[in-house]
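Supplementary Text 2. Reproducibility record for the structural model of the 262-residue chain.

All settings were left at their defaults, and a single model was retained for analysis rather than an ensemble. We include the record here because the model underlies the residue-level annotations in Supplementary Table 4.
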Amino acid sequence: MAVSTSTGGAAGPTGTGPDHRPGGGADKVLRAVADGPLGPYSLLEAAFCWNERRPVGWRRLGPASTAPARQLPVAQIERPAAAVRMTRLLTTMTWAVGTPLGPASPVARVEVTAEGYHRVLRALAGAWRDGRRMLASPGVAAAHYPAALAVWRMAALLSPADHGAGMLTVSVSIPAAALLHSAAPALALPHSIVQRGGRSTVIRADRPTLFRRLLADLEAPLPTAPGPRTTPALVGSSTAVALAPGAHLRQQPALRLAVAGR
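Retained model, structure tokens:
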């Protein structure tokens, strides 16, 4: 079932050059961020992604739809790291899987079971409302650093590779842009709104500053949990690998990633 993505954050051109080619420094940072701890605002992070990448016709999907299915799409995402992260975030609520639309397609469809679909949507809609209240203004957002970091984390994962050195360009819906604008001062993140058009807004943010905030969060102590944790993989991609908590940080130190991602 192929479905198109509703207006929100639009996919941009793929950048080229040492920091933007597949496997470049920025991509390494984003892959580490995607595999990092989910944190206390994982539902808000998932809600941000859902708001920006939910499929057209999402209201008509569900067990009672005219074309019943065992799995239904919550989001369609063109950035692999974001698709992996969204799949991990949804697994905190229910079974979820990321499936590429086709062998040559960069877009992945993140799906949940049809039975759990409406429950997941209610949770995401509620988290989105709560997040907009929590980050309603810079003054209010200043007391909610982890929530501010959560929305900017997903915005970075969804953003296309940027041609501008040192800058991250994010194209999002107007409500999401307002959220990011209010959240940025809590992170001391320099940013500017460079374009408004129709139902979307383009924001440019200082990439080294944002990456330092995201990587510092990866280095924060993780709660001890029994057994290994598993990093999910997209269906059709490499097999998921069990990692001990924090193992990916020892293999790819945050400082080295920060330098690579500038």
